[in-house]
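>> received
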Amino acid sequence: MKDTYRHKGLRKKLIDSLRRKGIQNENILAAMKAIPRHFFLDIAFEEWAYQDKAFPIGYDQTISQPFTVAYQTILLDVKKRDKIMEIGTGSGYQAALLAALGARVFTIERQEALHKEAKNLLSKMGFGHIRFYFKDGYKGLPEFAPFDKILVTAGAGSIPEELKKQVKIGGILVVPVGNSKVQRMYKITRMAENEYLEEKLDDFRFVPFLKGVKKVD
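>> returned
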């Protein structure tokens, strides 16, 4: 794995483009500038790694558009030592970003092959402290709840009730919701035991949030 001057230059251009699109959180931008996105893509897509686009990573999954990654991360309001559960490890890029921001990351993936690939890659990159789980994301990780923040990186048909219960009071759940090709981003803050504040934000496109697990054949 090489991160050349050319890669770093392309990454700087990407960060500049995100600023122009309204991403103003300098901590997030600095972390994205430090993480080589091309490490998370098949070598066939390396030339396009620093475009603001989503790309396939196999198994009907994608690595999200950098703008979307930054947008969701801003909504989480990540603080150092935050205990964050991510649903949908995918390539591992979002988990790496959360860890780079100082969070304690618990990440779940339903595709066993992606789970193994991401765990191996992030370990090589020095993110061995991230905790990886091959599980059904709809169930979350009740054994480790409550979490300060929960991030869902796939489009849910409705707000997952089981995940809402695993956010601490004062904590945040960020999840894209909708059954069509376009989902609405929700930021849900748990105000009390049975009270939640729901904020409906912008529209995005995500792969579907599916139940169950998919083992390697």
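>> Strands lie at 55-58, 61-63, 83-87, 104-109, 131-134, 147-152, 167-177, 183-192, 195-204.
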